[in-house]
Amino acid sequence: MSRRAVVWIAFVLVHAVVLWLGFTDDRAASWDVDQLYRWWAGLALTGEATPGITSDWIYPVLAQVPILAAGLLAALLDYTLAWALIVTALDAVGFAILIGRGRSRGRLLAGWFWLAAILSLGGVGMFRLDAVTVPLAVAGCLWLVGRPWLGSALLAVATWIKVWPAALLAAALVAVRRRLAIAGAAAAVSGAVAMAVFLSGGGEHLFGFVGDQATRGLQIEAPVSTVYMVMAAAGVPGAAVVYDPDLITFQVDGPGVDGVVSVMTPVLITGILAVAVLGALKAWRGATFAALFPALAAALVLGFIVLNKVGSPQYMTWLVAPVVVGLVLDRRRWWAPAGLTLGILALTQLIFPFAYDAVLVAAPAAVALLAVRNVLLLALFAWVVVRLVRVRVRPAVRARVTE
Q1: Which of 108, 235, 246, 279 is most buried, judged by most C-beta within 10 A?
Q2: Do 280 and 172 meet the contact criterion of CB atoms below 8 Å apart?
Q3: 216: helix, coil or strand?
């Protein structure tokens, strides 16, 4: 049996297991799909309302596409099952682009990593909007050099579903020489989306998701919230887990929390800009795409995670695309961070859904598990930033710069 056949058999088995995980424990891992996405699809399909067009929404407007697609299939299948099959089909397309004919060791290793990542994160990695964006992001990154227009267009589409692939687009603008193609494709997709929304009468809600994110508090799983979670577990007066019914999420409260909330958005922006400037400096000094893009993309994606006041388990899926590209281009350097990433994903699945009830009451053991996961995220962020700093530049360009 060929290596290609083996990895495709593994693909089927992994997705079957993760699909099953989404239906266990009262569908805890797939609650968002089973309840929220189903509800949103029903509102749109009955003409009652279309979030993102008739009202502000927490997601960019193209998030309605997979939600409505599953709703259309719900006439034949259970909505949650329809969602899982759509994600599996998208994964299969992205996986086929990655694996190709199965002759590249780097691509096969990246494929095995992707499957291990899906299994490590479990049901929450499949039953969230982020799952739709991962195969688009993987394919888009792989095509950035050979087909920059198509690669950038895919990343732009993914960004209008969930914002995080904007980090990959930013890395592409820095690391890819054909920057006009990258910028042009992204602008074309964004222009088409904006025109469609304006023609639908929802222009005032096009960027509603931006304001919603800016007004959020500290979500319990965000790295910055770790101190407050530890304080709550230790019984420090005022430190607690609170529920926000408007956003349907759990946040932390405690001494000075409002001040932390107020500085987190500037911290996030400053951190992302600093990483982007470092990447731009490397590109200006002649760093190659193969050396620069994986580290820069990973640093920007991790910056969005570790410097964010919002932190949900599905965010860990964002790590897949930059690590996959890193393994394809330089598996020797990227196998260690790939292993650390799998550890982070596995811990995330332990936290949600299995230990989540304990996290919500700030049980010490569960909070310790969350703290370890967040420390590992910070360690991975530090690794990719150091890797970015150490990206080699071309000697000839370096000489001209120093003259």
Answers
A1: 279
A2: no
A3: coil
